[in-house]
Specification:
By secondary structure, the chain is of the alpha/beta class. It is 36% helix and 14% strand. The structure holds 4'-deoxy-4'-aminopyridoxal-5'-phosphate.
Length: 494
């Protein structure tokens, strides 16, 4: 492990300062109703380093949200700060549209260094507007231009962003040109089987829809998927399923777009999540960690898809030099220090410990993840069992293969109220976690890849403590059993 930093002490709750309270009050008065993380995390960060954030009230927090997975090296890592300072001190222009610069050249070289071999040999990169969602738009536009077709295949539970096209392919927003296919979700298997069988049925249905001339699904411009669904509730696709999707699309000349916005740069245990399965996509969408904590988004794709006209995906902010320098430094650091492998090992250990916790807490319905992308799905064990849920044989969803086939039993209903209570109790104990998933009932951990063993212990201790407190809280006694009435919870974070 290359980076070690002492686990921060648990700092007792400080008295909120006037400044802290004033800032929060003004935020709630002046910012839009659409604000997200700020609702469930009422803190005012003023300083940060590594895993730790310090608030204006003097409290310190272990940050397992990491800018929604952006901060591969944690906050203000020295190599990132150094790279940013170097550009500033050099007098280089900070804004250059999409002109060539030495900084961009070095970023592109570093990025190509990380790509799956067959793609690296023959790739093009498009610098997009600085958000993941714009890169998704670019990917959709690219495959539509290259194929001359307009339909798309996308998956249940997907999240690809908030602009129109990205929303169309996300799980919550139907569009007539998008055919929605079942993502293999072991714990709540749409086929009620889980395991290998559930993933197999998903693949068969996909192939059948494409081959049946009366399926009502014309040949699409592309398929878009996440190798591990993030916002959908940390659901790793089985490697075999991903390979099947690759075979199915390749055999029918359908470009495969893999959205690595959240899974990229070592987070899941390999540099890109597709590497677990050996899948080589036609288009990869990248953002978050590639900018080393500053905004940057690109797509990388097979050169023969490069059929669009000059200016087909333009934008003013496609040349952020600081982000390129910070991103190149981050990617190089992850690669040279084996942080992907470290994330894989530490993540597996943390999953094991969380599964032990699950054995003592029936409110934990499922523990799953890959690398340092971890989800704990909370349920109401006394609630009415819904339809179509298949629990995998070991009660958890692993990632390496299809497993042995599901048991066919149905999982308990999701518990968004308990997840919210756990998030609140975590915050009280100085731990920042995210809540996501279809029913907003999955507590998500996305710590930096630099997490030390001691920090991992501190994170899990605080989580276990928070879970126990949330179970004992008024939520625990009163709100269980009402969960089935909460059908469409408002998403509070992405
Ligand atoms: N794709 C995935 C897989 C994501 O997780 C996200 C953001 N959480 C996006 C796309 C959109 O990225 P952005 O918020 O930067 O637009």
């Amino acid at each position: 492990m290359a980076v070690t930093e002492p686990a921060p002490a648990v700092v007792p709750a400080a008295r909120p300062t006037v400044a802290h309270e004033g800032i929060l009050r003004r935020q709630s008065l002046r910012e839009s109703a659409a604000r997200t993380y700020a609702r469930s995390l009422p803190i005012v960060p003023v300083r940060a380093r590594g895993l730790t954030i310090e608030g204006a009230d003097g409290r310190r927090y272990l940050d397992c949200l990491s800018g929604a997975g952006t901060l591969a090296l944690g906050h203000n890592h020295p190599v990132v700060l150094e790279a940013i300072k170097k550009v500033i001190d050099s007098g280089a222009p900070l804004h250059v549209l999409d002109l060539a610069t030495p900084v961009k050249d070095a970023f592109t070289t570093e990025l190509f260094e990380t790509l799956p071999g067959p793609l690296a040999d023959n790739a093009r990169v498009q610098f997009c507007g600085p958000a993941g969602t714009d890169a998704v738009e670019a990917a959709l536009k690219l495959v539509r231009t290259a194929t001359g077709r307009s339909g798309l295949l996308a998956f249940t539970g997907a999240y690809h962003g908030m602009t129109a096209g990205a929303l169309d392919v996300s799980g919550g927003a139907p569009d007539v040109r998008v055919t929605r296919l079942p993502y293999p979700y072991d714990f709540r298997c749409p086929f009620g089987t889980g395991g290998e069988r559930g993933a197999d049925l998903s693949a068969r249905l996909t192939a059948n829809l494409l081959d049946d001339p009366k399926s009502g699904v014309p040949r699409p411009a592309g398929m878009i998927l996440e190798a591990v669904q993030g916002e959908g509730g940390v659901i790793p696709a089985p490697d075999n399923w991903l390979r099947r999707m690759r075979e199915i699309t390749a055999a029918r000349s359908i470009p495969l777009i893999v959205d690595e916005v959240q899974t990229g740069v070592g987070r899941t245990g390999t540099f890109w999540a597709v590497e677990h399965s050996g899948t080589v996509p036609d288009v990869m969408v990248m953002s978050k960690a590639i900018g080393g904590s500053l905004p940057l988004a690109v797509i990388v794709y097979r050169a023969d898809l490069d059929a669009w006209e000059p200016g087909a995906h333009a934008g003013t902010f496609r040349g952020n030099q600081l982000a390129m320098a910070a991103g190149a430094a981050t990617m190089a650091y992850v690669r040279k220090n084996g942080l992907a492998e470290r994330a894989g090992e530490l993540g597996a250990r943390m999953l094991g410990q969380l599964r032990q916790l699950a054995a003592e807490h029936p409110v934990i319905g499922d523990v799953r993840g890959r690398g340092l992308m971890i989800g704990v799905e909370l349920v109401d064990p006394e609630g009415p069992v819904g339809t179509g849920g298949g629990l995998g044989p070991d009660g958890g969803s692993g990632a390496g293969g299809f497993g042995d086939g599901g048991s066919g039993s149905s999982p308990a209903p999701a518990s968004p109220a308990l997840a919210a209570a756990v998030q609140r109790e975590c915050l009280r104990r100085g731990l920042i976690v995210e809540v996501g998933g279809r029913h907003s009932a999955v507590v998500r951990l996305l710590p930096p890849l630099t997490l030390t063993d001691e920090q991992a212990v501190a994170v899990l201790d605080r989580f276990a403590d928070a879970l126990a407190a949330a179970e004992r809280s008024p939520y625990g006694q009163e709100q269980r059993g009402q969960e089935q009435n909460r059908r469409e919870p408002i998403k509070t974070s992405y």
